[in-house]
Amino acid sequence: MAHTDEREMGKLRWRCRRGMRELDILLTRYVDEEFHSASPAEQTAFRRLLESGDPVIYAYCLGQERPTSPVLAALIDRITSRA
Q1: Which of 7, 9, 23, 40 could form a disulfide with 18 if both were Cys (CB 3.0 to 4.6 A apart)?
Q2: DSSP string of 20-77?
Q3: Is the Cβ–Cβ distance between 16 and 24 less than 8 Å?
Q4: How far apart are CA 21 and CA 8, in angstroms?
């Protein structure tokens, strides 16, 4: 598990602010509650996910689309499992 300092955590929280409240809640909850315990691969996948557009992330979270990356797919499952 990679160490992430508070400054980077703040940046991640800021990047979780999306154009949709539902995504804000899901992504911020993941950062606050799960990110520190995630594997380095999952943390990298989360950072990549935040580079995606809101419609793509929303489609993943609703199950309308499935990421081709197994790590990203598992991350989406983890994010949405508590929704």
Answers
A1: 23
A2: SHHHHHHHHHHHHHTGGGS-HHHHHHHHHHTTS-HHHHHHHHHTSS--SSHHHHHHHH
A3: yes
A4: 22
Express each pLDDT in 3-25 by its tens digit.
678 999 999 999 999 989 999 99
Q: CB neighbours (10 Å) of residue 23?
A: 17
Judge contact between 9 and 35, C-beta under 8 A.
Answer: yes
CATH topology of domain 6-80: DNA polymerase; domain 1 (1.10.150)
Q: Is 21 exposed, middle or buried (0-12, 13-18, 19+ CB in 10 A)?
A: exposed
In which region does residue 26 sit, left (phi positive, over 0), alpha (psi from -120 to 50) or beta (all else)? alpha
